[in-house]
Amino acid sequence: MAYTPQYYAGNTSVAQNRRNHMSNNVQKVREISDEDLTACLGHRAPGSDYPSTHPPLAEMGEPDCPVRQMVTPTPGTAAGDRVRYVQWADSMYNAPAVPYWRSYHAAMNHRGVDPGTLSGRQVVEARERDMEAVAKEQMETDMTCPGLAGLRGATVHGHSCRLQEDGVMFDMIDRRRLEGDVIIQDKDQVGVPLDRKVNLGKPMTTAEANKKTTFYRVGNVAYRDDPEAIEWLQKVWELRTVYGYQPK
Amino acid sequence: MVRNASVTKKPIQVEIFPQKVLMPNTAEQLLNGIDKVPGVIRMLIQGPSLPRQVSCGPGTGAPVDHPDRRIINVSGQAFELNVRVGRIQVEIEDRSVKENIRKVAEENLPFPFEFREGFFIRRKATLVDYAKYGFKSKEDESVNLEDTRLLGLVDPKADPKDRICMLESEDE
Questions:
Q1: pLDDT (0 to 100) of residue B1
Q2: What is the reported pTM?
């Protein structure tokens, strides 16, 4: 019987959502075109070639190395792409993803990525086309609500602010906003205006966000509501602190 | 020493802290409602800034053109709203005005809010105020400011222009 990894303990919806993100059991809920994605990221002009930092590996004549023979390079590495980033801010008001779970999702399901986790934002650095694959997957699936999360390369302020009256996370440089019943983005992730309006789709309703969130939060699912998760947290803490945790 | 000052006639301060940050229309309605309550001395609005241009990162200098950074009218006085209103602090003449302020907030806010009494806007000049405004004279060592209601409304190091709005009440 094939082994199924058990990623996270807990019996609540939040624990299940956390497991879903880690195991990439996420649902595609919207369509973002490659050109729109490139425009939102702002690293190159939509439709242009990927600039490279070195020739393709196949042309470089790599040294005879057993590790290089074992590990297949990612598409971005094989083509010699530059390293570029995508950065997210997720509202603490029950956004579907927590910064740590974006990192887990990227690190467990994609190769050649370097996730960085901060309190209110989460960045993934990778070769450009590998990074775009991660960004596209996270943008198109239910691990992102366009109203409660945003691509924010700079000025990430807003994740811990109260939501606006229209239920959208505050963005001081107005990269995206609610127009009608959909979220429209017309600036790239650092706030430079785009020549297009990118439709990011409908934001989640409050009830839907409460169901999809990976945030433990009083008022929705509090951490204390999940005794199994607490039990495992305490067990890991005890093993690490008292006995010197050595996962093998 | 015991001072038998009347508690009911002492100015107090209250704060309205909405569950969500306010869009300009709601903020405008609420501020107008509060201004119509007799006994309001001064108000302070606070919230995250809506800048004119991007101030950091690779996009520095790009115009923001935030649609919600716009002119609002409070009691016929127009001023540019450069913050997303997150809390409103009001100084009122005495405790009897407090419930009227709460009533205005209930009428104008479509969602719950916290309403509390406390000390939010200072009344006394600080060292920095004295450094900025100086003394009135050699004999009078009070701060050289015609209207002391301005104290605490803006950061002493900030330019008060466009940050303070004087509203004339009808009986003045």
A1: 39
A2: 0.88
Nearest-CB residue to B84 (from A170, A187, A192)? A170
| Segment A123-143, tens digit of pLDDT | 999 999 999 999 999 999 999
In chain B, pLDDT over 90 holds for what percent of residues? 59
CB of A153 less than 8 A from some CB of B: yes
Give the chain A residue whose CA is nearest to the CA of B57: A154
Kindly tell me if the per-residue pLDDT of B77 is higher than 70: yes
Domain boundaries, chain A: 13-61+77-218
Specify burial of residue B152 (Cβ count, 10 A radius: 0-12, 13-18, 19+).
buried
Q: What residue spans define the domains of chain B?
A: 12-145
For residue A157, the 8-state DSSP code is: T
Report yes or no: B55 at the A interface, CB cutoff 8 Å. Answer: yes
CATH class of the domain whose range is A13-61+77-218: alpha beta
Long-range contacts of B2-8 (CB under 8 A, 24+ apart): B7/B95, B8/B94, B8/B95, B8/B96
What architecture is the B12-145 domain classified under in CATH?
A: 2-Layer Sandwich (3.30)
Interface confidence, given as ipTM, is: 0.85
